[in-house]
Amino acid sequence: MLSYIIKGKTKLSGKAEASGSKNAALPIIATAILNPEPITLYNIPNIEDTRITLEILKILGCTVEKKNDKITICSKNMNKTTIPKELMHKLRSTVVLAGAIIGRFKKATFAFPGGCNIGARPIDLHLEAFKKLGIDIEEKDDIINCTCKEIIGKRIKLRFPSVGATENIILASVYAKGATHITNAAKEPEIKDLARCLNSMGAKVYGAGTSEITIFGVRQLHRTTYKIISDRIETGTLLCAAAGTGGNITIKNANPENLLTVLYSLKEAGCQITLSKNSIKLKAPKKLKAINIKTEPYPGFPTDMQPIIGAILTKAEGESIIEENIFENRFKYADELSRMGANIEIKDKKLIIKGVDNLYGKEVMSKDLRGGAALVIAGLMSEGITKVENIEYILRGYENLDEKLINLGANIKKEKVV
Ligand code: UD1
Questions:
Q1: For the chain, how many structural domains are there in total?
Q2: Which residues contact residue 269 at a Cβ distance below 8 angstroms, ignoring those fewer than 6 apart?
């Protein structure tokens, strides 16, 4: 097990660079399965989630060449359509590989996905959409077997704008006969990025980034080189690390327009924010002000930033209320923050945070990716030493988080516990 040891109370200052987006990289890597021609991707973050996804592609028969943030994938000789159950269980986003495999081979076998335990996370919307597209689905124990003669474009109305289901429908429909029209689609920037990447290889996906997306089926795709967007959640995490420690930082390689609700909330909390095309500058006030947050599908406040902003509000002036509307089990970090001295009460889907003057370093446990990052930030804001255990969760989604924080002046190191 790995831990971070953090000595708190340093104001973070300086410059950091945002890495490529985890949530864009995963479905974009899946496009390589659809396309038998080689594709080259830039800005792929070097994190556990992309490593596992690339490992699955290799097992399926793809070649993968990786050099720093550049990878070239070729699925010309791909000969398997079953995603190994153990790897599927490690990572929820593997479910979008299914849409790409069915899209290309008209069959796929996979298990119910795993990933962070932040709620029930069913895949009913994905499977209902597959059925609409003419795909037969057999479920036995934990295994799902999909087959079809042809994918037929259809009108699909999502009951909820699920990010993964929207991505899966797009991937499955690229070679469909006719057009697929999604209404109530998720509007996240990562979906826009997926569509842009697919279109760069000859697909015809229109409307991504809005709630209505149309995919006109094409016969073939061609090779492409594509650079993915930067990670808005990592950017928000680093900004909050500075906001919580009274710091002053600039994040480069950022896409401010993808993070507007978070930037607005930080401004409301008293931070000075300066934007340019690709960078965000934040200067924290002496003391943050309490604010209220409600998580919502994009462009609302992102659920992934909820634990991170929760951590910094523990020392804000006044009472903040955070309402979580996407995942029902995303407050597990709150108990750990209470042990560090925070005044937090959970009431159904709300967290009520009364700001305190100080947090105190403790041994705490990360229980999911963003909750773990929230504890790191709380450690940076605390008096004394904090040990954040089980950081394997954090390493799934943040590239070199400790190095980036050290460059900003933090006192943090990784420790292996045997
Ligand atoms: C993606 C992101 C995750 C983010 C989330 C919401 C990736 C790899 N992960 O996850 O970081 O927190 O979007 O912005 O991109 N739901 C169903 N049935 C389904 C699918 C979803 O009921 O078939 C529900 C979920 O339980 C949840 C809500 O819809 O309550 C949102 O889930 P969804 O948008 O699908 O999230 P993910 O794609 O899993």
A1: 2
A2: 243, 285, 288, 289, 290, 291, 312, 313, 316
Tokens found for residue 366: 């990360």
What is the total residue count of the chain? 418
72 Cα: distance to centroid of ligand 1 (angstroms): 28
Q: What is the pLDDT of residues 325-368, one digit of tens each?
A: 999 888 999 999 999 999 999 999 999 999 999 999 999 999 99
Atom of ligand 1 nearest to the CA of 303: 12
Q: Which helix (H) or strand (E) is 146 found in, with range?
A: strand 143-147
Distance from Cα 115 to the centre of ligand 1, integer Å: 11
- Model confidence band, residue 114 (pLDDT cutoffs 50, 70, 90): low
Question: What phi, psi does 47 have (nearest 5°)?
Answer: -135, 165
Q: Which of 96, 121, 211 to mutate to test the pocket of ligand 1 (most atoms within 8 A of CB)?
A: 121
Burial 47-67 (b: 16+ CB within 10 A, else e): bbbbebbbebbeebebebeee
Residue 136: both structure tokens together:
């037969």
Task: Pick the residue whose CA is nearest to atom 1 on ligand 1.
Answer: 163
Are 181 and 293 in a shared domain? no
Q: How many other β-carbons are positioned within 10 Å of the β-carbon of residue 17?
A: 17
User: Among residues 183, 209, 227, which one ends one of the domains?
Assistant: 227
396 lines ligand 1 (CB under 6 A): no
Full DSSP string of 61-119: T-EEEEETTEEEEE-TT----B--HHHHHH-GGGHHHHHHHHHHHSEEEEEPP----SS
Q: Which residues pair with 345 in a beta bridge?
A: 352
**Amino acid identity, residue 143?**
I
Active-site entry in 62, 116, 146, 271: 116
Give yes or no: residues 278 and 379 share one domain.
yes
CATH of residue 354's domain is: 3.65.10.10
Domain range enclosing 323:
2-18+230-416
pTM: 0.96
CA 232, CA 58: separation in Å to the nearest integer? 28
Query: What is the phi-psi region of residue 400: left when phi exceeds 0, alpha when psi lies from -120 to 50, beta otherwise?
Result: left
Same domain membership, residue 83 and residue 201: yes
14 and 34 together in one domain: no
Catalytic site residue 116? yes
